[in-house]
Amino acid sequence: MSTALVTGATSGIGLAFARELAERGNDLVIVARRRAKLENVSDELRARHSINVEILAADLSKRAQLRRVADRVADRERPIDLLVNNAGFGTSRSFLKGELADEEAMFDVLCRAVLVLSHAGALSMKDRGRGAIVNVSSVAGFIPMGTYGAAKGWTLAFTETLAHELAGSGVSATVLCPGFTRTEMHVHPDGESTKLPKVMWLEPDRLVRDCLDDVKAGKVISVPGAQYKLIAGVAEVAPRGLVRALSRGAASIRRRQS
Ligand SMILES: NC(=O)c1ccc[n+]([C@@H]2O[C@H](COP(=O)([O-])OP(=O)(O)OC[C@H]3O[C@@H](n4cnc5c(N)ncnc54)[C@H](OP(=O)(O)O)[C@@H]3O)[C@@H](O)[C@H]2O)c1
Q1: Which residues in the chain show pLDDT less than 50?
Q2: What is the pTM of this model?
Q3: Which residue's CA is minimally distant from atom 1 of ligand 1?
């Protein structure tokens, strides 16, 4: 039996990963800040699938807590076969108008935690000659879209580099780049959800199944949904100046609407 460690497993895409991996018979280590929610997820998955579920309550923006999770990932007595670096959140405020501390916390979770946990995971998996790492980026990583997009762009480039370094070792690295996905991320404090045409929404369960198929097929970049494959493909080949101009236009429409 394999063991998967999923960060951000209390809601949204991370919860969908935990449920799908449990359904496939994997034992789990689930990580997030909210211990009570982690316990609910653990109770649900143990009861449904008779698997082992270990809980690690940790705030990945805090160095000491991140270290604890990295130590668990590196533990050779209890190996992790699949590492899913999914935890994250976004700030939609302007970089210059927002708080630097919020930006730093986002950077720490979206980039530093992914770096540290990938390092721990890749080294121990490489020694065993097998394993897989999934880093959750975003389609925003292909486009200049604020500091969130910049962090996701880092995750994309970092995972491609990691995949390159791991080639031939039996260990794979895949970067998942979803577009708008129905999760808690899009529910505002007033209970309203982000308004978008239906065609732009992805469902977490389907996205996770597609991503695990891409991991099995050895793909380095996994972009779920035909609409987002098109956007990512265009952003990769279009002149950078045009991509910047379109992104600036979309940002000013969003500002006028909010
Ligand atoms: N939804 C989308 O449209 C979308 C699109 C592209 C990419 N993504 C990416 O997908 C990933 C998952 O997002 P989601 O949409 O599923 O959002 P979500 O439903 O809000 O889930 C975020 C998860 O991350 C955990 N988390 C947040 N901050 C954390 C911290 N400091 N330390 C540890 N865990 C933390 C949360 O758990 P606790 O609150 O319990 O800590 C929660 O389990 C993120 O990396 C996000 O950037 C989302």
Answers
A1: none
A2: 0.96
A3: 181
